[in-house]
Structures are given as structure tokens and as C-alpha cells.
Amino acid sequence: MQKKETFLVNRLKSVGFAFKGMLILIRTEASIKVQLFITIVMTCAGFYFDISKSEWMAQFIMIGIVMSMEGMNTAVEYIADFIHPEYHKKIGLIKDVAAGAVFIASIIAIIIAGIIYLPKFL
Ligand SMILES: Nc1ncnc2c1ncn2[C@@H]1O[C@H](COP(=O)(O)OP(=O)(O)OP(=O)(O)O)[C@@H](O)[C@H]1O
């Protein structure tokens, strides 16, 4: 019983730390702010064009992937700046690759948005 409570308390604490991390991202990262704005716009567009259940799912999956990738990219940037604050070719490469991962997700998100919304204009 004691062990189970400790496990639960630890899980709750982890959720608290994760929530704190999410707030830090929203408060400090310009890209996350932009993505949140895009999320609001796309949600309004979803209601306006009355998109289907599967279109809502595709839209939110892509929003989730892009924003999570952005969060991981920020974490990589923090690690890189912490372990090597000075200029280094390898740090540049590491940051570029992490940013590239966000870029891939963003391109797919734009393609999915095109698949959902372009037919509504044609
Ligand atoms: N210490 C470094 N050494 C070498 N190149 C670096 C270094 N820091 C940044 N760069 C280069 O500058 C680019 C931008 O890095 P920066 O840390 O400013 O990210 P950012 O543009 O602020 O990203 P985000 O908008 O996602 O926060 C990197 O992708 C890399 O090419």
C-alpha cells in the first residue's frame, strides 16, 4: 500500500514537472507561440468548414507532432548551449538537424492541411 502511494505521488509529481515544462515552452519560445496561434486559426477553420471526424483527427495529430517536435528541438538547443556555449561546427550541425526534424513535420502538416482544405475551395 505504502509503495503504491509513493508510485502515485511520483507519477503526479512527474506530471507537474511536465506541465511546468510546457508552460516554460509557451512563455519563452516564439515558435511555440506562433504554432499556438496557428492551432487556434486551424481550429476555427475546422469549425467554419465543418471538417469530418477523421479530418479533425489528422489536423490534431499534426498539430501535436509539430509542437512536440518543437519542444524537443528546444530541449536539444538548451543541452547544446549548456554543454558548449561557444561556437562549434558540431553544435551548429546538432541544432540544424534538430530544426530539420521540426521542418519535416511542418511540411507534412502543410500537405495534410492542403488535403483537408484545398477541396473546399475548388
Ligand atoms: N554554438 C553554436 N555553434 C555553431 N552554430 C550555432 C551555435 N548556436 C547556433 N548555431 C547556428 O545557429 C542556428 C540557430 O540557432 P539558435 O540556437 O539561435 O536557434 P533558434 O534559431 O533560436 O531556434 P528556435 O527558433 O527554434 O529557438 C543553428 O541551427 C546553428 O546553425
Tags for this entry?
about 120 residues, mainly alpha, Helix Hairpins, 4 helices, about 90% helix, binds adenosine-5'-triphosphate
Secondary structure elements and pairings:
Blueprint: H1 2-28, H2 30-48, H3 53-83, H4 89-121
Write up this protein.
The active site is at residue 70. Its main location: membrane. A divalent metal cation binds at residues 29, 77. The chain crosses the membrane at residues 30-51, 97-118. GO terms for molecular function: ATP binding; kinase activity; metal ion binding. There is one protein chain. With 122 residues, the chain is mostly helical. Helix 1 (2-28) packs across helix 2, helix 2 (30-48) runs antiparallel to helix 3 (53-83) and helix 3 runs antiparallel to helix 4 (89-121). It has one domain (29-121): Helix Hairpins (Orthogonal Bundle). The protein has helices spanning 2-28, 30-48, 53-83, 89-121. The longest helix has 33 residues, at 89-121. Helix content is 90%, strand content 0%. Bound molecules: adenosine-5'-triphosphate.
In N-to-C order, the SSE pattern is HHHH
| The CATH architecture | Orthogonal Bundle
Averaged pLDDT, please? 96
Helix content: over 70%
Main location: membrane
Membrane topology: Multi-pass membrane protein
Organism: Winogradskyella endarachnes
Subcellular location: Cell membrane
Summarize the structure.
By secondary structure, this protein is mainly alpha-helical.
